[in-house]
Amino acid sequence: MNFDRLAVYELFAEYGGLLDEGKYDAWLGLFADECQYHVVPRENHQQGLPAALIYCDSRAMLEDRIRALGEANKYNIHTDRHIIGLPRIVAAAPGGLRVEAPFAVYQTDQEGEARLFATGLYRDQIEAAGGRLRFREKVILLDNFAVPSLLATPL
Amino acid sequence: MNFDRLAVYELFAEYGGLLDEGKYDAWLGLFADECQYHVVPRENHQQGLPAALIYCDSRAMLEDRIRALGEANKYNIHTDRHIIGLPRIVAAAPGGLRVEAPFAVYQTDQEGEARLFATGLYRDQIEAAGGRLRFREKVILLDNFAVPSLLATPL
Amino acid sequence: MNFDRLAVYELFAEYGGLLDEGKYDAWLGLFADECQYHVVPRENHQQGLPAALIYCDSRAMLEDRIRALGEANKYNIHTDRHIIGLPRIVAAAPGGLRVEAPFAVYQTDQEGEARLFATGLYRDQIEAAGGRLRFREKVILLDNFAVPSLLATPL
Amino acid sequence: MVTAAIWPALDYSRVPYLLYHDPDIYAEEQRRIFRGKVWSYLGLDAEIPKPGDFRATYVGDTPVIVNRDAKGEVHAFVNRCAHRGALVRRELSGNASNHICIYHQWCYGLDGGLTAIPFRRGIRGQGGMAPDFDMSAHGLRPLRVGAVNGALFGTLDPDAEPLEDYLGPPILAQLRRLLDRPVRVLGYNRQRIRGNWKLYAENTRDNYHASLLHEFLVTFGLDRSTQVGGVKMDHRHRHSITWAEADTDDDIAQQAYADAGVRSNFLSLQEPDLVTFRPERADRLNLVVTSVFPSSVFVQISNSLAIRQIRPRGVDEVEVFQTMIGYADDTPEMNLHRLRQANLVGPAGLVSMEDGEAIEIAHRASGPDRDRTTVIELGGGGVISDRDYRVHDVPLRGFWSYYAELLDIEPAGAVR
Amino acid sequence: MVTAAIWPALDYSRVPYLLYHDPDIYAEEQRRIFRGKVWSYLGLDAEIPKPGDFRATYVGDTPVIVNRDAKGEVHAFVNRCAHRGALVRRELSGNASNHICIYHQWCYGLDGGLTAIPFRRGIRGQGGMAPDFDMSAHGLRPLRVGAVNGALFGTLDPDAEPLEDYLGPPILAQLRRLLDRPVRVLGYNRQRIRGNWKLYAENTRDNYHASLLHEFLVTFGLDRSTQVGGVKMDHRHRHSITWAEADTDDDIAQQAYADAGVRSNFLSLQEPDLVTFRPERADRLNLVVTSVFPSSVFVQISNSLAIRQIRPRGVDEVEVFQTMIGYADDTPEMNLHRLRQANLVGPAGLVSMEDGEAIEIAHRASGPDRDRTTVIELGGGGVISDRDYRVHDVPLRGFWSYYAELLDIEPAGAVR
Amino acid sequence: MVTAAIWPALDYSRVPYLLYHDPDIYAEEQRRIFRGKVWSYLGLDAEIPKPGDFRATYVGDTPVIVNRDAKGEVHAFVNRCAHRGALVRRELSGNASNHICIYHQWCYGLDGGLTAIPFRRGIRGQGGMAPDFDMSAHGLRPLRVGAVNGALFGTLDPDAEPLEDYLGPPILAQLRRLLDRPVRVLGYNRQRIRGNWKLYAENTRDNYHASLLHEFLVTFGLDRSTQVGGVKMDHRHRHSITWAEADTDDDIAQQAYADAGVRSNFLSLQEPDLVTFRPERADRLNLVVTSVFPSSVFVQISNSLAIRQIRPRGVDEVEVFQTMIGYADDTPEMNLHRLRQANLVGPAGLVSMEDGEAIEIAHRASGPDRDRTTVIELGGGGVISDRDYRVHDVPLRGFWSYYAELLDIEPAGAVR
Ligand code: FES
Ligand code: FES
Ligand code: FES
Ligand SMILES: [Fe+3]
Ligand SMILES: [Fe+3]
Ligand SMILES: [Fe+3]
């Protein structure tokens, strides 16, 4: 287990680090070829409602969104900073893990003012293939679903 | 030591995860049969004053409080989110560890607005028994002792 | 690698813990004899400008600052709390590591009110010597470079 | 206090920035508009199907409860205890047979009436309320409730005109079109924008900004100003319907955008489903935004259906609360299609995230000098009327004309 | 500005929500009440036992220092430098022989007098203060200080009536009872509630809410409205004492609560010490809450003893600062007992946490329409008087009657 | 509104705390001072060397763009779209051939003129702006720009006196001295202080506080009030130059501080470079702080060179925006020396961090009673004039005298 756990830690450290550097293509590399990425307001999760803020049920949709972000969308110019708590391995299945990790994301505007932007829980499926770990599914439970300003760059 | 440290990390990950899910009974399972749980305002700690915000010098009192929370008390409806920093093993005695970990807790209200609720330091005694780690004593040094709104769910 | 990574984790845990306790001399002990410590506003970093908020290109300057803090400077009375995310080992060279870790620092005033004080990224050079790890260079990229109130105690 | 003298132009083509930034004006708006004779969207029948079902909502910044009583009738009332003003119902939604305030446990029925006061007669015959205390005079402040095809509206003014008159034929027709079969709620999303609520109300009426601000629309060929479309209003011009028809401009689109110097390099998506319009009706409408004064918006963008409440949160912040809906009889495929197209709207919406930014930068930059004004004359100034083209912002003047009327600051000789 | 016309009822049984939300009224309160002729609790002799001991506190929102001089005398003064207004003493507590402002190091004695100005005569005979500068006219603004059994009070009004007259016999008697032997400070706790300070002042006077809001009291059999108890006030009804006696209602308690439809299924604790009352005096009083106008509260709940300062922090927030005390001669067992029963009070208190929530939801829901009012008539309206039963809120009207007097907004023909 | 009656002393030696805390006064200051006839520092030529280079800055709290056009000319204008008030340029700096607002893509030239409106003529001849819409009347609000040796200033008042007259000979001389050769920008730092902007403006003019508040200066022998130094002002006394010469007091320093009872135990640093002054000119000046009314400050402390903008952020907060500079021809050694001495200034500055604290505690403690005043009479009261000694705060009275003039609240018989 030790190796696994440290590899999981490293995976989350990379996940946050790459996002905060804006290296979205490298970040996409942390996802499996077949993957899902959803940002779900806790409000909907609690009421059993399916709608999400971001709903990507294929890698294609996730890549489309990243592309749109670069090619078409305009949003507040900012810096993200992810603080991810210790991941918790909820279940270990052959070839995969169910892992949860709490997170807080801060955004700093162009004039250097920071604010808490998001808190929540990553609920992930991680697959081990070719000696490395990648996200097969990432469901982001967003605690503060009254989104401050807008949600552009990935959580 | 490696195993120990990773087991300690896992213990804290579970501690925060269970609280944030509101699984208080499972959370009680992380404490030893003989345990203490205290939330101490830094103000009192610094002045050497004994009064605490929550003072449970037995497992019975801790269980009483959890029960009261469910049966009798009313408080702001909210979601907790614990972000716990890397635990630091301060001392290792046979059958036990002294561990410290910094934490930040965010609360999100029903309408999805988050705020920083608490920051502080866990100062814990952890005992290893039957191959697993449990808290024998948890002293929570509360930095922001001017408690926002009220303190109901455990830190 | 495992040992390294856990030792790195422990180093950062100590780094934050010692600062939050105000044990600045012990904290200095985490730096190599030849070391650098810089706090750089992200604004300057992005524009390729050299000026820093704190610029210590020698251990002597770092010690001078810590001494001045105790002997000469006056600043807001407060408590620091560092929450440091999982460190990410960016490169491993013989006898040294390049490590990055995101951080958030909260400050609590004397009346127990907390606020987010700083977020950013540690970009460090760590050397392994005599069986222990120490910082040879620590560059602190400050996201919220519009510094709240003032910056006295080290980040 | 603000007066009619504030308007530099009689046709509401100039709006002084003061109106977006003055706290006293905000208080007046809450009193004269939101707590006045307007009708506000409260929720859907489908959200409270069973007796005892309730949901918390807002009218302006006033907290309101909507619920269904035992007889199946819908009631709405202000969520403030008649005793000492506490929020009576703290949960956002649920099912209950009455509403009990936690402070002293005064109990209210599903019609908002006060039904019980603990120890009303005291103990041992001592204390409690005076015998002549009139329970019936201390219920929760009621709203009048009306509905259009299951969309619930409420007003705090007992003398407000009937809902159907308030909405008028064109709006009614559009709501009935959108809600022509039983709906299913897919979920909610919320966005807190640091700007005055009226900047958002204008945005939803602003036909001009869509394809210019939301580049995604043009970049990925979802919607263009060159499509056949326009705006329809009620006779008071307080409400507005922005509409457009699919695939009606392939001839001229690219040229027009090129002329305007606006980038329109139609990229394509790996997953085209995101922008594929699946007609659900005889008409070709693929974009319909129905704005009901002051703060309700009904939206169809392709197959993404939503209802928005504009919730003012003080003069400097607004929450956009959006309910995503589909139809009860949607096939699993259509349901998935809607969940995917939900990516288009909301705080993370590929064709809506820009609004949050636009409103925040407008609020910020307009704050400092408040005697300066906006310019609203796309489609020309003068008399306010429907248009069958898309490059205009006429409905904004309609909004302001009715706003001025309710705040009693209409300039003499106003052109409407 | 607010006027006497604001009161809809002459007996203060209706309070307009405006009074909890208007910033100008807040400023008036600070000026006419807190910086006026009232006496405010400042701290305990036991907190500054030695010469040079000081503590920072507040009177309303004005920062104040209390200290003991070399002669052992206690002084209090506003913590604002006479030079350019900086906080002179930044630490919350400590021991010092004088107070030096960091900005320009002006130095003040323990009596608040200005004792030294650096470079007062300049350097090389150039600069510094004018020779005729009157040091004695530039001390720290002093408070008059009074004490009751070691509880220190202060007022900023030199013409305020004497402390003992201000408190009156019943309050004096209770303070002397609570402080009948040397106290030991066990610690402090603080709670920041997002509500107006007066909502908290009312809460401490509200006999009616206790067993209804704080279910723990009833659930675990600690306190019930059915016990023998009541309220006592000073002759101006500005202060109030809520009292109750232990074990005086076993006969009727359950029945009464059942009738009132209030749950009272007495659960039991694994650690009964938390709710076990250990009598410390001849009387059977197990609950005494003494509220001194405007913002001081002395509390005995079972064996948990505390003193609270209500600290306004603007119109929308209040801090409750609580000092937990025991007696110098407490046995180790009693000391442990008090530390355990401290679980009952404060921000995490099992019988107090609800107050924070009740006040916040009252502040939130009452904000929007401010012309509406509360209802205060448990125990009936009309003349304000002591009661020997518990189901009433009479002392709230006492609070408002004196509040109106100090703000000079008493209605003609007010019933008090 | 505030009137001349507010001044208790005719020589501005007493300032009522109200002026630091009243939001209406803040609004007046923005209108009458910052958007009035003063000149504000905008930036440096060296920051926008190439055509198309732009930077975002502020005049008071009004967002402003400074850029260089194709002809190399510098223009400045308010960063607020003439259409509906959005921030036109969102980036802080960059290079562009025009400025396009994201909301509806209105396009402005580098001179601030409106150059293009998308779909101005509509589509298919429908919609767009009325034909008679005057583009030239809807540019970005321009500032007049002036410069002193590459330091750019701007004013929003077309009738403001010329920059050189505004500054006056002594200030001009100092700016020309500081900027006597091409500068290189080393970087920026920002500090958000929870205090009114005028507390900072006073601080930079306060000769008295330096060696008393900033103990580092004395402890490590960097600067002392005993050095030869003083203050010079323009003829209106609105600006001020605080100056001191190095190593001119070794004789008396220690004694004087000992007499004043101020600690001056000269410690030494392991890295003396931090406090080593390397003369760069014939003069011996090692400290020059030039404060230009209302909010620009040019600073030389040893070899650390900086320019500060005081940016008000509402009545209760100020940002100090500081540009660290060196000279284009600095040797690598001198460059390193400046980077090291940058440790002295800014939010973490060893001789400046205290200012943030001093201002915050002054703002906090002065808030509660606003009818009380500061005392400004170091160096005596009466007529305002230059001084050739350091223990005084005369320039503060100069600041207030011009402040009163611009706010039109000068007392009759004011002494200036
Ligand atoms: S406030 Fe609702 S019952 Fe008293
Ligand atoms: S402000 Fe206190 S000494 Fe100047
Ligand atoms: S607001 Fe700038 S283009 Fe419309
Ligand atoms: Fe839009
Ligand atoms: Fe209570
Ligand atoms: Fe200074």
Description:
The complex is a heterohexamer, with three copies of chain A (155 residues) and three copies of chain D (416 residues). Chain A is built from four helices and eight strands, in the order H-H-E-H-E-H-E-E-E-E-E-E. By secondary structure, chain A is α+β, with helices and mostly antiparallel strands. Chain D is an alpha+beta fold. Chain D has helices at 18-21, 23-37, 163-167, 169-178, 197-205, 210-213, 215-219, 253-259, 332-341, 353-366, 394-406, and strands spanning 40-44, 53-59, 62-68, 74-78, 93-95, 99-100, 107-108, 114-116, 142-148, 151-155, 183-193, 229-233, 240-245, 285-292, 296-301, 304-312, 318-327. In chain D, the strands form three sheets. Chain D has a seven-stranded antiparallel sheet. In chain D, strands 11-17-16-15-14-13-12 form a seven-stranded antiparallel sheet, with helices on both faces. A three-stranded antiparallel sheet of chain D has the order 6-7-8, with no helix packed on it. Chain D is globular, with a radius of gyration of 23 Å. Chains in contact: A-B, A-C, A-D, A-F, B-C, B-D, B-E, C-E, C-F, D-E, D-F, E-F. The interface between D and E is large, with 38 and 39 residues. Strand 8 (146-148) of chain B pairs parallel with strand 11 of chain E, so a sheet runs across the interface. Bound molecules: FE2/S2 (inorganic) cluster (FES) (3 copies) and fe (iii) ion (3 copies). Residues 81, 83-84, 86, 101, 103-104, 106 of chain F line the site of one FE2/S2 (inorganic) cluster. One FE2/S2 (inorganic) cluster is lined by residues 81, 83-84, 86, 101, 103-104, 106 of chain E.
